[in-house]
Amino acid sequence: MVLLSKISLVHFWTLALSAAAEAGSCWRNTTCTGPTDTSFPGAWEKNIYAPASRLVRPQSILEASDSRTDFKVGSGHNVLKGNGSQIVFDFGIEVGGIVSVDYTASAAGSALNLAFSEAKNWIGEFSDSSNGAFKQGDGYLTYNITAAGKGVYTIPDNKLRGGFRYLTVFLTTNDTDNATLDLNDITLEIGFLPTWSNLRAYQGYFHSNDELLNRIWYAGAYTIQTNMVPVNTGRQIPAVAHGWYNNATLGPGDTIIVDGAKRDRAVWPGDMGIAVPATFVSIGDLESVKNGLQVMYDTQASTGAFAESGPPLSQKGSDTYHMWSMIGTYNYVLFTNDTDFLQLNWAKYQLAMDYVYGKVGPSGLLNVTGTRDWARWQQGFNNSEAQMILYHTLNTGAQLAEWAGDTTGLSSNWTARAKDLAVAVNADCFDDAYGAFKDNATATTLHPQDANSMSILFGLVDEDRVQGISQRLTENWTPIGAVAPELPENISPFISSFEIQAHFVAGQPDRALDLIRRSWGWYINNPNGTESTVIEGYLQNATFGYRSSRGYGYDASYISHAHGWSAGPTSALINYVLGLTLTGRAGSTWQLAPQFGDLTSVEGGFTSSLGQFQASWCRGSTKPSSSYELSFKVPTDTQGTVVLPPVNGKKSKVTLNGKSVQWGSEDTKTISITKGGSYKITVRN
């Protein structure tokens, strides 16, 4: 029997992993449960950022000691010579996982070093910051070369780097002039979405005549993919002072949805308020969502309180994030019809409702005592954002009670409580002189982005106030996005994700599309970013220093450049521009209500357990257009309504599958569809 050397064994194991990754196997020992192919093949697949294999290589060289820009596999090209020599490799998109370096060393006694960065701003020898110590950079990984010749260095599993685009490889040696290290190959085994063998097997799609919007939609989808991680790769808590460890347990199952690829790598229910609807209409992996919600129930306190975040972070004391766990339960059941999950956790859900509603005082308003929140400057007392979230929690809870088969009157009770809350909030928190909600039921001049956006989106605000609030929100806009008054100097794509939906609900699609292009368009085109994902936040001065001002203590490189809470356009473009939404579990009932804005053609779809939902519309070539055509296909055993906008504000002639339909007296035309199938509607003056 021939015994392999230690280096040969490492090399053999790395090659075995590489072969498995090339073949499309799932992450390490997980079972492949994800789809094997896309549900909607077409030209739009060119916009998918996800790689075709779980094994990837750099796409180019960003910086080197000479003019090299192309990455090549093989000897003699990617050569480091002398102490401090370095090459910055560019993977072209956000990636994450386990890096392996195949090298040839001229001699023993040198060290191979690796540093990582999501943004171009922090390329170099010390990595960007991810460990939570809030120091400038995490440092680098070092591998001591003990023999001349060929070798392979694979970073340890606990040093998995969850999110980066740039890899800096540099040499340290006492032989300042002569030592060389030939980097024959660099590979990365993708660690995210661990149960999928085909990372491009999207279960939804979007395509329009605006290529910028298409790129933004797929950037949101890809961000969510990078946020679905193996459950044993959470960030270690307490934070380490130097370096990083991603080996903490996050929850049940094999895969779970977290807030960010690089960090925090924990379940955050507030983030899921945006990330989960975007997940459903794009990649469609709801197993990660289920496990993320289940860990919140598994760690619920005896009082009924949910933690603000999942383990190992396990922060507590947030009334708003408590309610987001409840809203997340509604979204998950709506998209899946997983009533087994609902029944398993129904008693705990009721306890959670009792806990939060027990904080409603004599005024009829929620008294916020769990003051942790999404990063807004302050929280507490009768904060208006919390009132909006409670209103939505009560209404979605009423629907869950019906789905759970409750016969004790919970649904009608919670609906009545929501109506009473709306009366109190409109009376006590609305600033009539300004025309928008105040931040609190106090004498404050702050009119927040979050509460005002949610008031429209969740339907709490009196109808005659909607248009004024939508207009007021635009006063916070800059050329690169909306500044949140409740987080001065900062632009939050998380809260702006609610705002764009609010403008759509207000019937202002041009306004919503404008904000998407300003904010998300600015980042996707920013050469210093990932050019493939959506960012956690940034400052109004166009730097990536989100929450690094006003004493937050964050260093700018700590910001996550792949954060699912910013993926709002991915669901909004489907739900409002295409206009396709589910109103019943798994799509048993649905609505199609397109909003054109300045677009001329849009198509898209998604998949539920009942089958595929797909729609498209296009407008005539004349300006202004005198007609449009709407086509859609919905599964058997579903029914829904189609809401048709008029052409140029005029009542129009309508045909449904070639048969004339009367418009009627309403401004819009609603058509009931009582069975699944394919339909074509034409509308013209």
Automatic annotation (TrEMBL):
GO MF annotations, alphabetized: catalytic activity
Span of the signal peptide: 1-23
Domain Alpha-L-rhamnosidase six-hairpin glycosidase: 256-475
Alpha-L-rhamnosidase C-terminal domain: residues covered: 589-654
Protein name: Alpha-L-rhamnosidase
SUPFAM superfamilies per record: Six-hairpin glycosidases (SSF48208)
Record bears the keyword DNA repair: no
Lineage: Eukaryota, Fungi, Dikarya, Ascomycota, Pezizomycotina
Record's keyword annotation contains Plastid: no
Protein origin, superkingdom: Eukaryota
GO biological process, alphabetically ordered: carbohydrate metabolic process
Transmembrane segments: none
InterPro entries recorded: 6-hairpin_glycosidase_sf, 6hp_glycosidase-like_sf, Bac_rhamnosid6H, Bac_rhamnosid_C
Alphabetic keyword roster: Signal
A Pfam entry, by short name: Bac_rhamnosid6H
